[in-house]
Structures are given as C-alpha cells and as structure tokens.
Amino acid sequence: MTTSSTQEFPIDAVITWVDGADPAHAKKLDSYLATLGGVRPRAANPIRFHHSGEIDYCVTSLLRFAPWIRTIYIVTDNQVPDIVDRIKGTIYENKVLVVDHKVIFSGFEQYLPTFNSSSILAVLWRIPGLAEHFIFFNDDFALIRPVSPNDFFRNKKVVLRGQWKSLSEFTWRKKIQHWFQKLTSTVKSTEQRAGYLAGQELSAKAVGYDRCYFQIPHNPHAWRVSTLKVFFEANPELLEFSVSFRLRSAQQFIVEALAAHLELKGSDAVIDEKLKTLQLKPADQSLIRIKNKLSNADVNLDIAFVCVQSIENAPEQSQKTVFDWLDRRIERI
C-alpha cells in the first residue's frame, strides 16, 4: 500500500452531496418546481436527494483505506454533513473541506440553485486549489479495502474501468427496439428520460467517437483538472449549456464519460478492470441476495468499492444488514 509520504504527486478526492431532508433545500426545489407549473418531473423525484448517512462511510473509508489522498472536498449547496463537525479537533479536521456550489458556479450564478448532479459535475474542476489528479465519488460510494494511487493513476495517466461498446444506432437490437416502440406507441412522452448509457454515448460523440463508445460502470472515477479545463475553455458554450439545466436532462453530457473519452482520445488513459464495485440496491434485492453479495465481497479481494442505492426505501431488516456490514468493514468515525 502506497502512503502519502512516498506518493509522487498529490491526489485529491471530491464527493458531491445533498441533504434532501433539509427544509431549506426542499423549499428551494419547491420554488423552482413552481416555475414549471408545480409539476414534479422524474428528475425531481425526492429519492434523488435523500441520504441515510452514506457520506459518513464514504469519507471514513477514504481516511482509512486511502490515507495518501491529500484533501477530501465535499461539494454541497450551503449544507454541511455531520461528519465534518465530528472530525473537528481531530487529525482529520483540515483534510476534509466543504465547497459551496456558489464557488464552482462562479460566473454562472443565474443557474443556481441547481438540483442536477450532471450540471455540478461539469464544474468540479473549478474547485480552488484542487489537485490536477483527483477522484470523483458519489456520496453513496465507499471503499471497503485499502487501495493505492496506482489503482487510479499510472504514470500520471488515469485508470479507466469499463468496456468498448458499439453505439446503439449500430446495433440490430436497438434498431428493432426503436421500430417496435414506434409501431406500438400511441402516446408521446413529454419527458425524455436522462438515461445513463444514452448520456455516455452523447459524451463519446462530443469527443469524436462516431462508431463506438467506452461504457463506464458506476464506480469512483479518476479525473484530471486540465483535461476538462482545456475542453470547456475551448468550448465555453458547451460549459454553459451543461450547467444551465436545473434538473437532469437527456441533452446533457455524462461528465464521467466525457472525461474518460477525452483521456482516451489523448492516449492519457490506462484500462484496467481488475477492481470491481459491489452494487447494492436494498430496496429491490431480496435479503438473501443481499447477504450473498456481502459474503462474496468479504472474500473477493478484487471488490474494492461499494455503492448503496436508495437504502432508505428498503425493508428495515435489509437496512440493518447492510449498515451492520458497513460498520464492520469501515468503522465509521
């Protein structure tokens, strides 16, 4: 395991977080929805803004299993997670910093408040003092075992996890599916879903890939500040377009995918799929399946990350099983 004292260059971590139960946040969202006629689109589903303390595990896991990370930035909208108060007066106090949306949206304040993770990700590279090399985490991710800088950067190139896929318009399955939908559909949807894979394809095309794209899974993502800075400064209209959506839109880039394809285009990426993510959806998975997945993660040394989605909607026993396991593996501060 590489320690901070032997690391060749600084690496930071950035976590995006929101407390949807905060009355101030809820009021902002309701006020914005009122401008849309009071209709709550799919992208404003409350589940997108809920949390059950997952960020505690995310931050703690970084401190325990990646001590070589220089600074952990938590990006929020005028909120502070409890863990920041808990580490005050400890050796970690100056290692975890909170960054407000107003800071990274400087010059684009007209698009605040935003409730759109894709818009926020488009300006993460603008965090003052952020290291050139950093790792982006959603707040429902955590590490479950020690990792090293080489798991994310090698020779200052980013490490990518994923697989090359044909763009959907070049697959027969997609063509048949599209034809069938046109044939059977009698109602036109007024709300186009912001699909994760469709957004990845859009991002690949923006970089110049016209036949295939590199499909990335849900996992922590290694980024370089200069990659996004150069792209968006050369295409300022795309940056403003990206941050202009208050809610997620099918027209937006998936910034994780945009960054990955930019690195691939510049030959600044290394593909390595060894490390895997344990994907938990306790609200949709049976208790038996959850226990089997947790047991497998305990013995499979290649599973280094965990993602726990929408646990607040899961049955009580499933929640307890997952949190007990996280407490054992990570030991929250």
Overall CATH architecture: Alpha-Beta Complex
Mean pLDDT: 89
SS content category: alpha/beta
How would a textbook summarize the main sheet?
Answer: 5 strands, mixed
- Identify low-pLDDT runs: 1-5, 186-192
**Could you say which overall geometry the principal axes of the C-alpha atoms support?**
globular
Enter the CATH topology name: Spore Coat Polysaccharide Biosynthesis Protein SpsA, Chain A
Count of separate structural domains: 1
Helix content: 25-40%
Range of strand content: 15-25%
Give the SSE string: EHHEHEHHEEEEEHHEEHHHEEHEH
Q: Which key terms come to mind for this protein?
A:
5-stranded mixed sheet, disordered N terminus, 3-stranded mixed sheet, Spore Coat Polysaccharide Biosynthesis Protein SpsA, Chain A, 333 residues, 13 strands, 12 helices
Overview of this structure, please?
It contains 12 helices and 13 strands. The protein is an alpha/beta fold. The chain has a single domain, classed as Spore Coat Polysaccharide Biosynthesis Protein SpsA, Chain A (Alpha-Beta Complex), CATH 3.90.550. Helix 7 (about 195-205) packs parallel to helix 10 and helix 8 (about 225-235) crosses helix 9. The chain starts with 10 loop residues before the first strand and ends with a helix.
What is the strand and helix layout of this fold?
Layout: E1 11-16, H1 23-35, H2 54-65, E2 72-76, H3 82-86, E3 96-100, H4 101-104, H5 117-121, E4 133-138, E5 141-143, E6 153-154, E7 157-160, E8 163-166, H6 172-184, H7 196-207, E9 212-215, E10 221-224, H8 225-234, H9 236-243, H10 255-265, E11 269-271, E12 276-280, H11 287-299, E13 303-308, H12 316-330
Parallel strand pairs: 1-2, 1-4, 2-3, 7-11, 12-13
Antiparallel strand pairs: 4-10, 5-13, 6-7, 8-9
